[in-house]
Amino acid sequence: MTTRDSFDKIVTYFAAMTSQQFSYKGKAYYPKPLVVSPLILRHFICHQKCGACCPRFSLDYIPAEVRSDYVQSRCVNFNGREFKIYSDLQNDHDNHHCRNLDMKKALCMIYEERPFSCDFEILRFFHFAEGPNRISTQLFGRAWALTRIDGQKGAKCELLEPSETGRDEAVRKLRRLQQWCKYFKLKSKTAKLITILNNADMETFGGARID
User: Fold this and answer.
1) Cβ count within 10 A of residue 185
2) Euclidean distance between CA atoms 114 and 137, whole angstroms
């Protein structure tokens, strides 16, 4: 079983937020407008005894971040340049779930050092061939197919109504994305989006568009 490389997914975040053309693995990405859904302000509940969103994939950090004990440095080629990141590729075990998942409680054992790809859930970008990209807070598209620690299918996470907590969490995650964009020398719309969310009226926010 080959571990999925989370950096490939992180590049899709860059693609949604970029203000400049860049390339990755031979594919060119171009800036597009971004539609901000009002549902980005939602928070969620992560239930114990689930762990469905914690399969085995690479756990990645940029050098400035606090990281777990299993990581090793590696280089990734991004936009024609080599960048060092720290990753736990989890290639030394064959378990379906992440090595850091407590298989009795379904709790993350490195929560304070959680990798970027884990931390960014469930803030989601949607890419469309035509028209603007979109960002929202949304549960997993195939949540019914995810495997819990009890071996059954179906994630148990729940979305709540928009709230200050939801806004704070979205802003915190976007600040981390901003740090990643800065590290990879990528100009992005992240600062504009953070400003929009910080100024949003919780009662009347109907979304926004960033060109």
Assistant:
1) 12
2) 19
Residue 109 three-state SS: coil
End-to-end CA distance of the chain: 41
pTM of the entire predicted model: 0.94
- CA 27/CA 7 separation, integer angstroms: 15
Please tell me the total number of residues recorded for the chain in this structure: 211
pLDDT digits (tens, 9 = 90+) for 135-171: 999 988 788 899 999 999 999 999 999 999 999 999 9
Residue 184, pLDDT > 70, answer: yes
How many H helices and E strands in the chain? Answer: 4, 11
Report the distance separating Cα 176 and Cα 149, nearest Å: 29
Two structure tokens written together for 57: 């994939």
Is residue 105 over pLDDT 90? Answer: no
Domain boundaries, the chain: 6-210
Render pLDDT for 24-70 as a digit per residue (tens, 0 to 9).
999 999 999 999 999 999 998 888 889 999 999 999 999 999 998 88
158 torsion bin: left (phi>0), alpha (psi -120 to 50), beta (else): beta
Say how far residue 186 (Cα) sits from the centre of its chain.
17
**Contact indicator for 148, 49 with CB cutoff of 8 Å:** yes
169, 162 Cβ separation under 8 angstroms: no
d(CA 62, CA 141): 28
